[in-house]
Amino acid sequence: MTSFAEFHRQSIEDRDVFWAAQAQLIDWKVPPAQICDYSNPPFARWFAGGQTNLCHNAIDRHVAARGDQPALIAVSTETNTERTYTYAQLHAEVQRMAAALQALGVKKGDRVQIYMPMIAEAAIAMLASVRIGAIHSVVFGGFASGSLATRIDDAQPTVIVSADAGSRAGRAVPYKPLLDEALGLASHKPQAVLLVDRGLVPMNLVAGRDHLWAELRAQHLDAQVPCEWVDATHPSYTLYTSGTTGKPKGVQRDTGGYTVALASSMPAIFDAKPGQTFFCTSDIGWVVGHSYIIYAPLIHGMATIMYEGVPIRPDPGVWWSLVEKYKVTHMFSAPTAIRVLKKHDPEYLTKYDLSSLQALWLAGEPLDEPTANWISSAIGRPIIDNYWQTETGWPILTLCNGVEKQASRFGSPGKAVYGYNVKLIDGETGAELTEPMQKGVIAIEGPLPPGNLMTIWRDDQRFVNTYWKSIPGRLIYNTFDWGVRDKDGYYFILGRTDDVINVAGHRLGTREIEESISGHASIAEVAVVGVADNLKGQVALAFAVARDNNVAGDPQACAALEKSVCNHVDAQLGAVARPARVYFVSMLPKTRSGKLLRRALQAVAEKRETGDLSTMEDPAALQQVVEAMIRG
Ligand code: AMP
């Protein structure tokens, strides 16, 4: 068996040989003429000259051998429905949707915008788009009309696929009025809107523009729509990053490189086998959802569970009941979801038979040690952190246990994944940092591996300037994350380069302080931000959720716990890292994908305008922050 070190070395030093072998994992109509064309850095053209199709690799090629095997299992604890599509059924359903899109005028290279809740039709629309060579652009269902309008204007879709409503915690969340509003705001007008009517809220249809999926589906029940073979470098989708400023960036993904990267990740990273069941709790509006709810499990011939609902309804055991019921082998979630569960009794998890589960992968934000410890003892399975970005499409750092089993280190997402030539760089001088535990910017030497963004949609210059020109004197991809690497090659993420705070001349990562505070026995969750201070330049302020819900409303209890938390940080990190204040709230401001809105917190703390809050889960959270600060 090849060691991981050797596997990684080959992927960088014998790049073409390595990736030519990985390319064998997928079907090609025309095999690639070249493995990596990097003649025009930083633009990499993976598998140039090859022709393939993402939908063919996800569905069609499995139908003969596993037509009756479950492919997509759509579970909704909002509508209390569970629908299983076998590979053969999904094949038929995707062709119906593909025929409907074609009937509405979609051709190869056209965009199909998808603004949908977590229902099977969303996955079907994605697969149908790539089947006919169209480019999908999923907009997270929680975005409001302004954000949707900007994305419509950037993607310029021929058709938008949407639904009457989503549902959250038992309440219908209408989508159609928001879509209509967005279409009023946007200057681009799509030819048609295709709507799934779930019967949750009434819809007003615009004559000539709006079409019902049920009607079009009925017209195309027997549709046979062959896969359109596209160049490996043909875009499969764009996905807008959750960037905080200005115009959103449309991360553009190719077809061949993405399919190969995902296909290779299933055995190498996840140690997964065809026929097993993958359960990723993300949302199709995020990159993790694209890669690990939809494409990778299907490319690998697995069943994939798509879940609509919250993790604690009808009770905090719901996900684990699905693990038992569907014999889930691989589960993928985010630390924030685990911190939600952590507020409840671990018995909810342990009462189910989790013996099918190999491991739980967590990504998207720092995995703090207390959360990792809690979930690991609750489910008795390995917890595997993995670090990546919308831009990369699959993990940059993790443990490739399918290549070689490696011990995890708490606080570290692991080592550089094969294909990624990761470097730590001094952000000011551009010098490479090679000594253990030197703090630097995590950067990736080009070419980025297959599956990573090709460019920014219709903005090559922005791609180059944003990601490749921000480190002096080097053409290198900047992740904008700080990190260190230990002597064995394990990385530790210290937060965004843009989240760094400087207290009285000391550079501190808010992440380090958060990790310390969340280790306090009475704290469930915390966010730390740097706030301008006349004396020290910046000070750290902590906003914390206590494990005991009564603390936030009780000034005496707040004061006592604040003191105790400060003592804890003093003892762990030193007084320099002690937050100036710890405010208690019952929830933190987060995006619907669970990321802390640190910038909004910081703005409130500095009494500035908060900017765009359209991604915020619950506006009441910021109000609580304001009130906690007024109470003092
Ligand atoms: P997004 O593109 O929205 O997925 O956000 C990517 C950013 O999330 C990264 O640049 C990191 O700052 C953060 N991130 C993702 N995964 C991890 C992880 N495992 N540990 C720490 N930070 C992470």
TrEMBL record:
Residues 5-58 form the Acetyl-coenzyme A synthetase N-terminal domain. GO terms for molecular function: propionate-CoA ligase activity. Residues 60-447 form the AMP-dependent synthetase/ligase domain. It comes from the Bacteria. This is Propionyl-CoA synthetase. Residues 512-595 form the AMP-binding enzyme C-terminal domain. It comes from Comamonas odontotermitis. It is an enzyme of class 6 (ligase). NCBIfam families: PRK00174.1 (NF001208), PRK10524.1 (NF007815), propion_prpE (TIGR02316). PANTHER family: ACYL-COA SYNTHETASE, ACYL-COA SYNTHETASE SHORT-CHAIN FAMILY MEMBER 3, MITOCHONDRIAL.
